[in-house]
Write a structure and sequence with these properties.
Blueprint: H1 3-12, E1 17-19, H2 28-35, E2 41-43, E3 53-55, H3 61-67, H4 72-84, E4 90-92, E5 100-102, E6 123-124, E7 128-132, E8 139-143, E9 146-150, E10 153-156, H5 163-170, E11 175-181, H6 185-191, H7 201-208, E12 212-215, E13 222-224, E14 229-242, E15 245-246, E16 252-253, E17 256-268, E18 274-275, H8 282-289, H9 292-300, E19 305-311, E20 320-326, H10 332-343, E21 349-354, H11 362-372, H12 375-378, E22 379-386, E23 403-410
Parallel strand pairs: 1-2, 3-18, 4-12, 20-21, 21-23
Antiparallel strand pairs: 2-3, 5-17, 6-9, 7-8, 7-11, 9-10, 10-17, 11-14, 12-13, 14-17, 15-16, 19-20, 22-23
Helix pairs in contact: 4-7, 4-9, 6-7, 9-10
Length: about 425
Amino acid sequence: MGFRNFIEQLQKNGELTRITKPISTEYEIASVIEAMGEKPVFFENVKESSIPVVAGLVSSKDLIARSIGTTKEQLLPKLSSAIENPVAPELVERGECQEVVEETVDLTKLPIMRYTEKDGGKYIDSAVAIVKDPETKNRNMCFHRLMLLDKNHFVPRLVESRGTDTILTKAGGELEIAFCIGNSTAVLLAAATSLPKGVDELGMANVLEKIELVKCKTVDLEVPKDCEIVLEGKITKEKASEGPFLDLTGTIDKVRQQPITEIKCITHRKKPIYQTILAGRNEHKFLMGMPKEPTIFNEVNKVCQCKDVYITPGGCSWLHAVVQIRKQNPDDGKKAIAATFEGHKSLKHCVVVDEDINIYDPHDVEWAIATRFQADKNTVILSNQPGSSLDPSGDLSEGKKATTAKAGLDATTPTTSTGKGFTKEQYRKIDLKNFL
């Protein structure tokens, strides 16, 4: 339903809290969002900027589902279908994001926030980045946190050997880029999803919700026409220190030398709304982890029948997954483990369970491990695997891709009998009203 329409719906339903008192981008906004449990909140009076700030729009699966016109139960199949069947969005002449064009760039006028006392600077952490492969002309959309340097420069965090970094290398170390702030949930989810090379993430977004694009003013890129703010610029060969900053794991990420990005033009709506999220908290976790559930779901379905997937918050919504299958063959569990790691290459540990296990209940998952799993028979251990730079225990040597050890646990019901049952006995269901 779009960014603004969803805000209006939350307001109408009494689900949006409006803060009218003056508030600072220096720690205060972040602290209020945290104290409110990331429920939807709108800050009308920001001390350092004339632009209001909104947060908490994607802080639960229910909110995410509603914002793209579906239910929690249908969210996984809807995302899966959009990944498998992207549709290229239409390019139009005009867009709301270009109602105002500012060729004199002053990034300090934006309500760019400082979140924790350990932040290396002020950060934008909700911006969707769009770049284009110089050879194939294919678009790539993803997230990059942006540390403010001055009025027209950021230092983005570019993960080595991933989309933008790979394209930047192909381009010779300089690359045009556009950052979009204030996006529909469809765009946010698509940007967080790893699609096959050459597949446009905006095509996925267009299936979740109709997306139209508009050409940027100063760079050869296209952006969603109804986003709030667009920063047009170029990644340069010059480098600067980026970080520290709070990561998805809730720990502080280290300082790195990263390429400086120069912003040449800012376009925005006449009265833009700035969207922020809290690093390492629910919105960050749902946006980064949940789009991996359908990619795992699709891969597992190639080898056996997958029923559901959950990227667990205890695993930082990135490193751990529980996969539910309908087991039909003795090796389905181990096949599902291999497919799970293929579906999410940064994953560190996974547990495969039967369809009678509630994957959203950690006690039920632990029960399956306790009663259906033998470590010497049902564990798959993979050494020296491509891992996640978010994992502080992995090999994070500078200048190379992170590596880690991975483990998969097949906690499905054994096909051979041990003389004991593998199903929880249930008590008879009654109506308590008859006894109270």
